Amino acid sequence: MLETFIWFAAGLIALIAGAELLVRSVSRLAVVIGISKLIISLTVVAFGTSAPELAISIRAGIAGNTDLMLGNIIGSNITNTLLILGMAALIIPLKVHVKLIRWDVPIMIAITVAVYFFALNGAISFVECMILTCILIGYMIFLIRQGGDTDFKIKVKEKRKPTVILLHSVLSITGLYVLITGASWLINSSLIFAEMAGVSELTIGLTVLAIGTSLPEIVVVLIAAIRREKDIAVGSIIGSNILNFLAVLGISGLFIPGAIPVQDVLIRFDMILLIIASLLCVPIFYTGHKIVPWEGMLFLFLYFGYIFYLFLSSTEHSFVTVFTSTMLYFILPVVLLTSIAIALMEWKRRYRFRNINFKNNGNFK
After folding, report:
1. Residue pLDDT, tens place only, 158-208
2. How many helices (H) and strands (E) does the chain have?
3. How would you class 305 by CB atoms within 10 Å of its CB: exposed for 0-12, middle for 13-18, buried for 19 or more?
4. Sign of the C-alpha dihedral, residues 255, 259, 264, 268?
5. In percent, how much of the chain has pLDDT > 90?
6. Are 270 and 278 contacting, i.e. CB atoms less than 8 angstroms apart?
7. At what angle are helices 230-243 and 2-33 packed, to 10 degrees?
8. What is the per-residue pLDDT across 255-275, written as a single tens digit (0 to 9) for each?
């Protein structure tokens, strides 16, 4: 038991140190080579922070623990959206790049809905995993074509010397390695604690593993938010959510013989919650192009409601049916519709403001 606690503490320290080094190095590297920090966060950082999910999913899939694999992927995306963005928004309002709202968030929603429809027949086939992998390739090409930094001019006079680029690249890789190593130590120790408590495989995947494999995202986003690296903070979460389905599920599925079975409970609640959480990102991101503290509180409210549902479900409590119905048919629709209404009001305000400016400039008669 003492040894497990030591590994847990060591993993936490490695996570924080690795994330700090990664954010610093990636931010500097983006400036030096003239690539947008948003693109860096959607690719390099997102791939790096999704590495624990990919490693665990491949290992779990080959071992036949598909519930663990799917629980890890779906739970990680729920954790990324509701817990991490919620926590970060409480520290500092998170600015959201307009490109995320126009392209990457809709892509994330479309992929999430597609995976839901793939799962409706109770299994995700090899062909469907291949489709996800092909979409991943297309998405990477799309990001590469948008890779130039059009948001700001390079103000530093530092030349793009190969040694400078190599230094920041090595530091980024080192930070990423320390980050993933720390996550691995934390996950392994957390799994021991969960198994000692007698928690089911699916619940472990949706909670302990999901939070454990999301720890890199949590620490990276919190440190990026504190350092006011807004593009890295939000971009890494959206990118991680996209890659969890395209890379983690898509690539992992290629290593699994036959189709991946999907438990009905995932389709009836967890994936619906994930779709609604993803949809919420559109109106919340659109209003002011930022996530403010009260919106972070809303995300956290939904996340802890989800944790309470998992507790009721794992203990087979009689209240779980009432709670599930209340969430699905009242709370979630009300939250989503209210957010859409607020976003529409914001859109009308901006539309009127543009018209007023248009008239004042003498271009409208």
Report:
1. 445 677 778 877 887 887 777 777 766 766 776 676 666 666 656 666 766
2. 19, 4
3. middle
4. positive
5. 27
6. no
7. 110
8. 887 889 998 989 999 999 999
> 35: helix, coil or strand?
strand
Structural domain boundaries of the chain? 2-264
Q: CB within 8 A of 21, min separation 6: which ones? A: 171, 172, 174, 175, 178
What confidence tens digit (pLDDT) does each residue in 94-123 have?
A: 888 888 888 899 999 999 999 999 999 999
247: tokens are 């890379």
Integer Cα distance of 342 and 154 in angstroms: 37
Supply 318's token pair.
């009689």
CATH number at 2-264: 1.20.1420.30
* Longest Cα separation, the chain: 77
Residue whose token pair is 């847990």: 8
d(CA 20, CA 136): 28
Task: Give the integer Cα–Cα distance in Å for 150 and 246.
Answer: 27
Residue 220 contacts by C-beta under 8 Å, 6 or more apart in sequence? 19, 22, 23, 45, 49, 179, 232, 233, 236
Q: Which amino acid is at 259?
A: A
Cα angle 221-274-73, degrees, rounded to a multiple of 5: 70
Query: DSSP string covering 110-178, please?
Result: HHHHHHHHHHTTSEE-HHHHHHHHHHHHHHHHHHHHT-B--S----------HHHHHHHHHHHHHHHHH
Whether this prediction's pTM lies above 0.85 is answered by no
Q: How far apart are CA 180 and CA 363, in angstroms?
A: 56
